[in-house]
Amino acid sequence: MSSDTVRYVAGKEAPWSDTCLISVRLVGQKAWTNLPVAINIAPRVPEAQLNALVRTVMPGASETIQLTDMVTWPGGREGDPSKLRFETEGNGSVFEVTKEGSRLKVAARADAAPGSQHVFSVSVSGAGESRAPLTVRVGDAPKDLPRGGSFALRCKVGSECGASVIGTAGEHDPFAGKSGGGLKLESVSTRSCKVGNFSRVGEAGVAVAWPADRVVGGTCTVGFTVIDAQGRTGTGSIEFDAAGVPEAPTSITQTAFDATSVTFSVTLGGQAHPEVTGAALSGPGSKTCTEKGPSSYQCVASGLVSGEKHSFSASAVNQVGSSAASTSVEAWAYKAPSLSSFTAVAVRNAANEDPQHGSVTLSYSGSDDVVSVAVVSNKGHELELSGKKGSQKLDGVEVGDITFTATPKSNVPLPGAGSGVTTVDSRQDNVTVMGAPRLDTVTLQSTGPHTAKLVFAGDVQGSEPTYGIKLKADGAPTCADAKSTSPDFANLARQLKYQAIVCVSSDWGRSSKLSNDETIGDPVAKPGGNLTYEINTAVSDQSADPKKAEYKVKREPAPELTDSATVLQYRRNGVNIPSFALDPGVWEQNIEVRQCINPAIEATCSEWAPITTAGPKTTVSLIASDTNCYNDANKPLTQADWESLITIPSFMRNSATITAGTPDATTIPITVTWKDDFQMLDDATVKLCYTPPPTGP
């Protein structure tokens, strides 16, 4: 057009965008610059253009796709979407497609494989024509897994039995009601049930086969596995209830008899379902059975003739029927013998020393057919007395009221060898058994500084007890020491341990019991008074001996006795000393004091009381040498040099600073200054002999 104007002429149809490359240069430039110019073309009439679209649908799910989401309007010239007409082509095997105007409903089959896809071709008209692909993919399966149901299956052992496991209560199919959905039976457990053998029947059912010779019912839980449209598995369970006759009783035992009947104990077998409702006895006579426990029955056959032998067996009964019979047992009725008398008499024994036991004499007389008498008590005694009459002494019988029961036995053989006997003529007698006097507790109590009282509890049967006491150190007292009839003791040694004894005797026996160990009187208290001492921190007067400096005791402790019967005892660093005294050889003294009734007996002493000080802990002495003198020509330089001139306690040497003063003709003052633990002490000065330096050539 001109040097600064260009013209672009668009065609009638797409494309609706373009780029022109224009070469330009400014006046004065020699190089050309290529400039790209973007061109957006607006159609004269709005024209719809379709773009590709991708959507994902999970198995068993559906999604409605707005086809208008694929439409764009080139050049920014938008038309009327309501005039657009959409068409789709293609119908994948894993999708079901329904189109309603501009909406496309796509449902994925429940058995569609995740990751598979189908491409639909979508075309639009009504504002030009355009076509683009619509890709629909199968997404991941839902996270919830399938689950089999749980149901009860009831059958009778031996009958035909089976059921469908699909569609039962508690079942869950993530794709229920969806195209391709539905659970199928994959497997059933074959080892989880001993009652019946389960097997899979088709894709939904199970069948039960009964083990050979199985008659007893039972219950079990059988697991099975289902599979959904996506091949995922879940489990379900069958609560199996098989009804059968009980197992035969394991035993029948005769337990009792009388003149016209026999009694049996029937022990049930270990298995029964439904539960046993009763037992039945076979054999002659009128028969009844009564439950006696969770697995036993008592059965009685009555109306029998004494001595006539019969065979009996038992069976268990439930709602289904009767079990097989137990093994048989032979039994018969029996008339028991009788006793005309039976007595139990307590025996007096003054030598008995057991308060818990005594003796009883048992006497009896029976009929001519009595061969022995079985005697039992309500406290567990059991014995058998031979013959139709006699007596026997029974020792070691618990004291107190006791009842003995005597049962005669006949010389006629008993029915059912080893079976129990039900007697009709047992005799009883009650007796009070007496043992030795009983002493339950014996306690020695201190009642004063020199007195004590003996207290006891028990049953002395009206006898007069005697008492004795003895020092613990002299051994335990015996009844030979028990010469007093009074439980009160006097003139005892204070703070020593004693032990006492109580002795008692009667027609039924004799007893004794030792008391506890008891210390007489209250414990000795610690001494009172002033339990501190004080050391001078200043050096004592040196006028008498300037070669010696001492830190002496300023005040001693003044402990006071708080008990008039005691004396003071001291100890220092764990060693007893006769009186208060300090050890100048060590700094720590650890002095203690106590008061004792008898210092030789530890038990008569109080606890130790510490004697303390707030200042220096012991006396200190510094002594200048009489033989070694200070020499200017050979001045002391080391600690060892000074130690040869001045005696200082060993525990203080490292804390002493020694300095020499100005000498006179024969002596020189030596001053010691303290530090560390000894800095509370004032400086100390001693006079040391002095050797002046030589004079002249």
UniProtKB/TrEMBL annotation:
Q: Which PROSITE patterns match?
A: FN3
- Every Fibronectin type-III domain range: 245-336
Q: What is this protein called?
A: Fibronectin type III domain-containing protein
- For this UniProt record, give its keywords in alphabetical order, as a comma-separated list: Carbohydrate metabolism, Glycosidase, Hydrolase, Polysaccharide degradation
Identify the InterPro entries for this entry. Answer: FN3_dom, FN3_sf, Ig-like_fold
Q: Which Gene3D superfamilies does this one have?
A: Immunoglobulins
